[in-house]
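All the exercises in this workshop are built on plain-text protein records. An example says more than a description, so a record of this kind follows:
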Amino acid sequence: MIDPLSDMFSLVDIESARCTRFEVGGQWAFRFPPKPALKFVAVLRGGCWIILQGEPPFVLRAGDTFLLANAPAYVIANDLASEPEDGIAFFDWEHSDIARHGGDETALIGGSFTLSGGNAQLLIDALPPFIHIPADDRAAGILRATLATLDEELGAGDMGSTLMTRRMGDILLVQALRAHVSRVGSENAGWIGALGNPQIGKAISLVHNDPGYRWTVGELASRIGMSRSAFAERFRTQVGIAPLDYVTRWRMHRARESLRRGQATVAGLAADLGYSSESAFGNAFKRVFGRAPKRYWRDT
């Protein structure tokens, strides 16, 4: 059986942007602009606050890690009364991956990853903007160790470092997602949480393992041992869309990636994904992405 989360990762290219270390002492506050990336940060020692727009300050302690998805603007500070300085302008990020200011009582290490490929938004949409993993969570130690290894790989530039750093991005993200679902519960973690539900997760796996099958709500419900109505309601509640809408969207995301990579024709994809004609496939593609497949690639 194909693991749906791994299946989603196969449609997205995760590339390491850089790894940085931040050491600071005294009273301080720094603001950082939004960045279209995944950003992992581990607090190695000391502690601070993180302030996201519209949210109350959140305390971070030594050993904690966190993930910012499609990183929004934020402030990190150990003194909430201080006026935040521009973190990008203040430090010489262009010439060093290590920033120091006023001491080293607090130390953080962070890794940034960019997402590329036409389906990057698919993964971003499945993530909450902020995931906190406290120090006493088993995953926090794994994340800290992986970030430290990533730091070494990026600095050394040894053979295979590009492949290593990309795989570490996958590992960091999977570990953060596991920890997030474990803490908030599968019912509160959207599509990612639904993967851990014995019944809804199985239905999603069925779709991913055979997207070209002509699925109906009734057959999916029967395969997982639920009534049609109960399945449809629970699926929509946990995933956010109706079961057959999910089937269509997943087919189209797979199709878009195949077309982007030049791995298939529109006619071939229509047949493989269970459509009776190229026209029917094109209409489904247009409903999801707003343009017919051939025009989509001509205009992008």
Q: What stands out?
A: Residues 4-184 form a domain with the Jelly Rolls fold (CATH 2.60.120.280).
